[in-house]
Structure formats: C-alpha cells, structure tokens
Amino acid sequence: MKEGGASSRKRFALSCVLCVLLASTALYAEFDAGFYAPERGGSIRQTLPPAAGSGASYEVGAYPLYPANLAPGDGQSEVASYCNTCHSPRYITMQPVLPAAVWTAEVNKMVKSYGASIPEDATQKIIRYLQSHYTPETRKK
Amino acid sequence: MTNPDRALSRRRFLKTLGAGSSAMGLAGIWGSPDAMPQEPAALRSVPDFTGPSANPYWNSVGPIITEPQKAPLILMADRPVQLETPRHYFLSAFTPNEAFYVRWHLQTLPNSVDLKEWCLHVEGNVGNPLTLNLPDLLERFKAVSIAAVNQCSGNSRSRLQPRVPGAQWGNGAMGNALWTGVKLREILDAAKLKSGSLQVQFEGLDRGKGPEGYGSNRFMKSLDLNDPVLEECIVAHSMNGEPLPMLNGFPVRLVVPGNFATYWVKCLSWIRILDKPDDNFWMKTAYRVPDTPGGSTTPEEVNAGRIKTIPIAKMPVRSFLISPDGSGKIPAGLPLQLRGIAFSGHGRVKKVEVSADEGANWLDAHLGEDLGPYSFRTWELPWTPKRPGKYELAVRATDEKGHAQPDQAIWNPGGYLWNRIERQKITIGSAA
Are B100 and B248 in contact (CB under 8 A)? Predict the structure, then answer.
C-alpha cells in the first residue's frame, strides 16, 4: 500500500513535470514561430516632437546627421576634409559602383564646375582613394 | 542582439519536438539538414549599394531614417537632405506631407523661418518692385488650388545602364499634393514687368559653402516669360491643406505643374525678372537633357561632344504598379486588385494597361477619380492568377496627347527622364 502510494505520487509528479514541460514548450514554440528580433529589424527611435514657441518664428529641430562609413584607407582624411565642405560622405557611399574614369570625372567636376578649392595633390589623392574603394572591382561595402 | 546560430538551433530543436514523436527519441534533436529553416526575412537587409547592373528594387537601397516633420523615409543623403518616399505611400492619389520626398542642393537649409522678417521679393526688370509677406499673399491675392505631381528630374536614376553618378533614386522621388496659393501671373502683373523682360528667375533660402558665382553657392532656376506653363504656376503656401513641411519648402514654394521638380523652388523668397537669359550653373550647365527623341543618347556620343542639350522641362508619362509589390507569394485562384498610379507632365492620363504575359496581351485598367491634368491618377484592375508560377506584370500609361510609355531603356549623363514601362515579378503559389 505504502509502496503503491509512493509510486502513484511519483507518477503524479512525473506527469506534472511533463505537463509543465509540454505547456512551456508549446508556449515557447508559439513565441519562437514569430521570431521577434527587434534589434535586427532596423528599428529607429522616435524623434521628440518639437515644442512650438509663440510668435512668428517657425522652427524645426536640427536636421540629423547619419554618418556614413567611408572605407578606411589612404586619402580618407582628404575626402573627409575637402568633400565634406559641401556634402556629407553619404554622397559617396550612396553611389553605385562606378568605373575609375567616372570617379576621375566626378572629382574634376567638383573642382571645375562647383569651384571646390582642393589643392592638386589632394585632388589626385581623393581620386585614387575613390578608385581604390568604390569601383566594381574594389568596392567591398 | 539575437545570435542567429543559437536562434537557428533553437528553431531546429523545436521543429523536431513539433514533429513530436517520442518514437524519434533524442536522436531526432540533431535532426536532418532539411529541417534547417531559412534565415527569417527580418534578419536580412537590402545591400548598402547596387551596381554595376541596375538597382533591382522599386525603391533605392538607403536606410530608413527620421527627419523633422517627416515619417520614416529612405535616406539618400543627410547633408544636403535627400529622402525617398517608400512605395506603399503611392496607393493613394495624394502623397501625405510627412511622407513626401525631399531633395535639396545646398547644405545650408533653413530649419527656422521668422515670418516677421521673411518676405517674397519681386525685383529686377519691373516697374513696381514688391516685398510680400505671408499676410500679403493670403489677403491681397485670391487663393487657388491645383493637384500636381512633383517629381525629381533624376527619379529612377538607379535604373540607367551604364549607371550614372548622382542621387541613386529608386522610383520614390515623386509625390502628388493639392497645392494652394497665389497665381504667379497675378504677382508678376502686380510688379508690372518692363519691356525687354525675357525670363523669370526663382531663388529660395538655401545657401551653399562653395565660392560665389558657382552653383555650389546659390541655387536659382528660371523660366521663359513666354512659356505657357507660367499661366499654371502658383506660389503655394499650403500643401494638402496644411503648411508645407520645412523640408518641402516652408513658407512658400513655386509649383510648376507638369514640369520636373527642379523648377519648384522651395522656401521661395526672390522672384527676379531678367532681361537676358539666365546663365547661372543650374540653368546653363546642370539639369540639361540631350535634344534628342526621349532625351536619350549614348556615352560615346557624349564623349565625342556631339550632343546638344536643352534645359529639362516636362515630365514624360509614367505609371506604376504599387500593389501587389512582390514581397509575398500569392495563392492561385485568389482574386486580387492590381493597384497603382499614373501621371504625365503633358496632361491627363487617358489609359493604363496591364500585361501579365510579357506584353502579348494588355488589359485596360479602371482609372480612378480625375483630379486634374497634373495629378496622380489611381488605377486598378481585378486579376485572378489561375495557375501557380512566376508572373511578370507590366504596366503602361498613355496620356491625352497620345504619348505612351516606351519599352526601351533610355540613357543620358544626368540620369534624367526615365519613363520605361515598369515591371514587377509576382510569385503565385499552389492554393492547396
């Protein structure tokens, strides 16, 4: 009798453990099926709505900067100091891969058509940098 | 950060448990390779760049970001700001202000305008120079409204082959709004143009860091005074019944119905009457297209210096399939509505046709409400794909002047005027 009671308690405990295990597995599987991975979904934080002042001045917040990752390499600092005068490096990273000759023409256009004052040696360095990292053969990311 | 490897093995474990048979026993936990699930789509992103082939996506590939007064949009550049509107916003005829694309040329943009100080100057070859503040524009002139599409000259630039440098827009550098404001003609009349006047020049509040006399310093656009579009132009103080977002040109911007957006000067603050043609960079050098049919040429012709160019002006006819967008598989036999928009800078869209069989047969779509000759016109077409398989839907529009979209790619060095027939791959799956 005593032995029988012990074994039925054992069976009861075992089935309890099994039930809990099954239920939590089902719950976990349900959760996992949706595969929630917010950190990887490209989430962005909400911006704070600006406080509207009174009077006739209409303001919005500063336009945020979204820094681009320029490929590290010789000439990067020239790009950062000269190209950055008129536009952010996103102008470079948003381009498709372009042939070396197109990059030469682009930099020359900045100097000749847009009047960018870049010393000749820096101009050549910038061209070499873009050709070393942003052509179909050289662009990695 | 979720570790994908761990996530995958967890999923595999659960899958095996789900198969569930105790008969499989513990050995099943290490499952067969075919139990390996695909990496969930949410973990994958489009590439950071495209090329040398054409961008295969409807939109451009930039990240989604936020800017003041804007819904999350696709970033082309943060300085000067260039933002693209995601595809789904084009299901409606009007594009919400907060989703309207943004394109500036010079990096110093206003993020604050004091209406106590601000005014619109009308000057140059006029008998009666004007300085108009916002109450003047609201009270001294009659308000008129027009629905008009604003499309960047370089919209869809990422389609060109070979690729050309510039903002690598997908199709989302466009939007349609109900613009309300003052007729430009009334302002010009009030300023009393003197004889010998040739062009009218427009300039806004944006300024660049480049040297004086260069396009990197100031942005100005001009229209010929005998251009019929002048009769349609308005100086808009409202966009879809609201003030313009700062990034779209608060407090007023020029609306040039039918013309590409390069003329729609934002934060418009100077109107100048010129007695000789405007030779500033943005007229003489930039925003010019080959004077050829469809504005198309070849790199060889350009390199040989054989191409005569003219300032870009009217938008050619275009149409787009917005839904379904190809992002999901659709069961065979399920009735669908194909939906999209069409427009032309030359006037009303008269016809939109869809082909599901590589152009062998074209079906007429039902056109939505006619909101005016320069507006987006919505279209829809019921379609029930009968058999599973890969389909390619093509859509083409024809405007009231008889212009139909071509099926040939065009090319020009600026990456302008793209209006080739759009195509969308759709996968139809088995329904059972």
Answer: yes
